[in-house]
C-alpha cells in the first residue's frame, strides 16, 4: 500500500504468483464399471490495483 496523501492510497495485490496449475479430477462408478478424467488448466497470475479515496 502506498499513501499518496492523507485521503488517497493505492493498494496492489498479486494472486497465484507461482502460477500453480488448476487441476480437476472427476470420477464415476456405476453398475457398468468406473470411469475417471483429469483436466489441467495452466495457471495464471492476477494483478489488482485499487485506488482508495476517503471523503
Q: What would a concise description of this structure say?
A:
The protein is 0% helix and 69% strand. The chain contains no helices and five strands.
How would you describe the overall organization of this protein?
The protein is an all-beta fold. Helices cover 0% and strands 69% of the residues. It has strands at residues 2-5, 8-15, 22-30, 33-41, 46-53. The protein has a three-stranded antiparallel beta sheet, with no helix packed on it. The chain has a two-stranded antiparallel sheet with strand order 3-4. The radius of gyration is 22 Å and the shape is rod-shaped. The mean pLDDT is 94.
Give keywords.
two-stranded antiparallel ribbon, three-stranded antiparallel β-sheet, single chain, mainly beta, 55 residues
Main beta sheet strand tally, sense and closure: 3 strands, antiparallel
SSE string, helices as H and strands as E: EEEEE
Q: What is the percentage of strand-forming residues?
A: over 45%
First and last CA, distance: 19 Å
Shape: rod-shaped
Low-confidence segments, given as residue ranges, are none
> What's the number of helices?
0
